[in-house]
Design goal:
The chain has 171 residues and is mainly beta. It has a single domain, classed as Distorted Sandwich (Ganglioside M2 Activator Protein, Chain: A), CATH 2.70.220. Helices cover 15% and strands 47% of the residues. It contains three helices and eight strands. The strands form two sheets. Strands 1-8-7-4-5 form a five-stranded antiparallel beta sheet. The chain has a three-stranded antiparallel beta sheet with strand order 2-3-6. A hairpin with a 3-residue loop joins strand 4 and strand 5. The N and C termini lie far apart (41 Å).
Length: 171
C-alpha cells in the first residue's frame, strides 16, 4: 500500500490594505461630508473614518446600493451588487439576508448606523481598522488577491444623496 502525502496549505495569509476613499455629496442641501479620509498611524495601524452631516432630518426612508468591484481593465462588478432598504434591514436584523448582514458587518462595530430609522444629525464610521477588514475579507469570506472597490450609493426618499467609494487591495 502506497500512501502519498499532499502538501495543501492550511491557512490563507491575505493582507488587506486601503488604497483610497472618495465621498461625494450629491445633494449638498440634504447632506454634507464633514470628513472622509484614510489615516496611517504607523505601519500596522491604519484606518478609515467618515462623517456625513444630515441637514434635513429626521430621515425615515433610506436605501443603499452596494456593489463590490474588482479591477480588471477598469473596475468590473464582482460578487455582489444589491440594493437594500436600510430601515427594514436594521428593524428586522435577525431575519435579514446573510449577504446584507455580512456587508453591513464590514463596518457595523465602528458605526452609529446600528439602529432602525429615523436617523438624525450625522452618520459616522469612525476608525474602521484594516485588521478588522483583513479578518472579514480573508478568513470569514476569503477573497482572491487583487484590487477592489466597494461602491455605495445612499438614497433617501428614493433620491441618490451620496456616493461613497472605498478602494483596497488584497495581496
Amino acid at each position: 500500500m502506497l500512501i502519498q502525502q499532499l502538501n495543501v496549505p492550511t491557512n490563507v495569509n491575505a493582507h488587506f490594505e486601503f488604497t483610497n476613499i472618495k465621498c461625494t455629496p450629491l445633494d449638498e442641501e440634504f447632506a454634507t461630508f464633514e470628513y472622509c479620509y484614510l489615516k496611517s498611524v504607523n505601519r500596522t495601524y491604519k484606518y478609515m473614518s467618515l462623517k456625513v452631516n444630515l441637514l434635513k432630518s429626521p430621515i425615515t426612508k433610506i436605501k443603499v446600493n452596494i456593489a463590490l468591484m474588482q479591477r480588471l481593465s477598469g473596475y468590473k462588478p464582482f460578487l455582489y451588487n444589491i440594493t437594500v432598504d436600510a430601515c427594514k434591514l436594521l428593524a428586522n436584523y435577525k431575519s435579514a439576508n446573510p449577504v446584507t448582514k455580512y456587508l453591513h458587518g464590514l463596518f457595523k462595530p465602528f458605526s452609529n448606523m446600528n439602529h432602525s430609522c429615523p436617523y438624525s444629525d450625522s452618520i459616522i464610521v469612525e476608525k474602521l481598522p484594516i485588521d478588522y477588514l483583513n479578518t472579514q475579507l480573508s478568513l470569514v469570506l476569503p477573497f482572491p488577491k487583487g484590487d477592489y472597490a466597494f461602491y455605495s450609493n445612499w438614497y433617501a426618499y428614493d433620491i441618490n444623496r451620496a456616493d461613497v467609494r472605498v478602494y483596497y487591495t488584497i495581496s
